[in-house]
Amino acid sequence: KSDISKVQKEQSKLLAKMAIDLQQSRIDAMEDGEKKYMAQFSLDYNKEILAIQEKGEALIKVQQDIEHKQWEEANKNKKDDEKGFFKPKTTTVEQLPQDQQQILVDMSAEAIENNAKAILKYKKELYNNLLSQLSDYKSQEEALNIEWDKKIADATATGNEELLKSTKEGKQKALSELNAQMLMQSSEWVR
Fold it and tell me: By CB count within 10 A, which of 16, 58, 141, 164 is most buried?
């Protein structure tokens, strides 16, 4: 039963690693954007958790080796038929010594914190980028308004209603083009 269990654990680990590799390939193929970055953050977190689980399994194996050595030492003077069979007491992370359990808990908490920090950093960068785009847009809009308001004032001074009408339409067209340009540059357009 123990050998089957070990092989099944190895198979599960291999399948988990293959799933991570597949997920990474899918993320790499995605277009840049929030969906890709959030998927990458999630995958990075899952990789970190898998590494922590592997470390937990390694600690279990080391603890079992210690127990086996202690069992051998305790039974070194007994005859083979009196020794019985070694059965490890530690088979799960919860059975590890408290200090080792705490290290794994701390590592998991740090993984959660690192993931949250990475997401927060990304969101801040995205927010700052949007603010920068908005500021740039507002500057361009203000420059257009000043330019076209001067043209409208000049057209008004001529008294030519047709020129005034076409100048006002020109201003609206210029502002619409600016709005369209800014929309196409935004992350919303890419979605």
Answer: 164
